[in-house]
Design goal:
Length: 461
């Protein structure tokens, strides 16, 4: 048996929280501004606030909250980091990451690699899948601390005001990121504002709240986790379930009801919720036959059979591109060299063809790996008269979308698998997949694999 000793991590935090254990004698004499202010706050309690009798679950307590907290402490940083990495993969150095202007929230940039080719897909699968799978855990964590929303007074010191404000950023931030993220993978443009801009700045609000919250709560989380054994809880039936001892935070109900479920049951419920979300979404990252099980993600499903029967986000119809735009009159224009070079599809097919099996991985988390055939971008650069291209600016025939252009990094232009694809899986590209020609580059974010290419400008370094 160990006995609690003063000087343990939790102690100082707890006495600071109640603020009642030690009163500086000098403070007692002067009724300075803060003192009467906090007292007044405590006296005028709005209805419904105070140690509420409403919250009676015998499961609530620091241990249960800390179990959910520990899971989120480990996993939410992975969701956040993959999100920020995705921003960098969009190549902000070319002004094509959204938002373009981020002021002092600028990220350290690095050249996004082209290998392994599934790198961006993996990053986005982790970001989107983990983000979705954590929704039940986030909700459970919020449920477990509901009584804290109604404590009164909400704060007894300036330090506690800061703590409460950080909670507002944290909870507001995480719900905003989940809300915008989920809407974006379900629908196209449902926002009156840019999804990317909102999601980026929302992430920083969340990060600020998260960092402050972890700094304040980590010692208490460790103490609470040590207060019970997880294995023991997993062996405890509903009938044997007892409330945790009353805590300074007011999580534990003063007059708890009898348990309707054990802690094991509650953890199992949240865990199966996450598992269900995983099963109904993971198919979009695996692709192929598994795609049909991605029921929560309508865009992850298959589009018919045949060589062109894979995922389409944006159809030619939506992009206002008809057969006439891509008929016999279509020319690819290459610029950047001494003279512009114009090629029709037959001329492109007469050039050396290269085949590569490459994924398209969208920011939304879906991925589809296909076999593409076409002309190497570096061969096109050489043909245009640019021996060492520093970047390539690709334009689509499309005139109505946000994704009608892309700039590629030097390594993306020069990679031997980087193609202007003319064919896929042994057949001509379908109109929806970008006929007559589309860009396909290993590990490039999906959005920059421009369809219905009209021109490429090879720029010197
Ligand atoms: N011209 C053009 N190319 C485009 C797009 C577009 O809207 N217009 N969408 C991009 C996006 S967001 C992705 S993920 C890939 C694959 O999209 P798809 O499923 O519409 O083919 O193509 C990219 N190429
Ligand atoms: Mo995309």
């Amino acid at each position: 048996m160990t006995t609690p000793q003063s000087g343990q991590p939790g102690d100082s935090a707890e006495s600071a929280q109640t603020g009642a254990h030690s009163v500086d004698p000098a403070d007692r004499q002067s009724e300075s501004f803060p003192r009467w202010w906090w007292r007044g706050m405590a006296r005028y309690r709005p209805p419904g606030f105070g140690r509420s009798r409403l919250w009676r679950s015998p499961l609530r307590g620091p241990w249960l909250t800390s179990v959910f907290g520990a899971v989120l402490l480990v996993t939410l940083p992975a969701v956040t980091l993959t999100g920020l990495v995705s921003y960098i993969a969009y190549a902000p150095q070319f002004g094509q990451a959204i938002p373009v202007e981020v002021g002092w929230l600028r990220l350290p940039l690095f050249t996004w690699p082209t290998h392994p080719s599934w790198l961006y897909g993996l990053n986005q699968s982790v970001h989107v899948l983990l983000g979705l799978v954590l929704i039940p855990v986030v909700l459970a964590k919020l449920w477990s601390v509901i009584p804290k929303l109604f404590i009164w007074p909400q704060a007894r010191s300036v330090a506690q005001v800061v703590e409460r404000l950080s909670l507002l950023l944290l909870v507001g931030g995480v719900l905003f990121e989940i809300g915008t993220g989920v809407l974006n993978i379900q629908y196209d443009y449902v926002f009156g504002f840019s999804f990317y801009t909102a999601h980026y700045f929302g992430a920083w609000v969340f990060i600020a709240g998260f960092v402050v919250h972890v700094a304040i709560k980590l010692p208490r989380l460790i103490t609470a986790l040590r207060s019970r054994s997880l294995r023991g809880e997993l062996r405890t039936s509903r009938a044997q379930t007892r409330p945790e001892p009353l805590d300074v935070d007011g999580l534990v109900a003063v007059r708890p009801d009898a348990p309707t479920v054990s802690r094991r049951g509650a953890l199992g419920l949240v865990g199966s919720g996450s598992l269900l979300v995983a099963v109904l979404t993971v198919g979009q990252s695996i692709g192929g036959w598994a795609r049909q099980f991605a029921l929560l993600l309508p865009r992850g499903r298959s589009y018919g059979d045949g060589p062109n029967g894979f995922q389409i986000n944006r159809t030619a119809e939506a992009a206002l591109i008809g057969p006439r735009d891509v008929g016999a009159g279509w020319r690819l224009v290459l610029t950047g060299g001494p003279e512009p070079v114009k090629l029709d599809r037959a001329a492109l097919l007469a050039m050396p063809q290269h085949t590569a099996r490459l994924p398209i991985a969208c920011v939304e988390g879906w991925m589809t790996t296909e076999t593409w055939t076409g002309v190497r971008l570096r061969d096109l650069a050489a043909l245009a008269g640019v021996a060492h291209p520093g970047s390539a600016y690709v334009r689509s025939l499309e005139a109505v979308g946000a994704f009608d252009r892309a700039t590629l990094q030097p390594n993306q232009v020069r990679d031997p698998d980087s193609l202007l694809a003319l064919r896929v899986n042994g057949a001509d590209l379908s109109l929806d997949h970008g006929y007559p020609a589309r860009v396909i580059v290993p590990a490039l974010p999906g959005v920059h694999n421009t369809k219905w290419v009209r021109s490429i400008e090879f720029r010197s370094p």
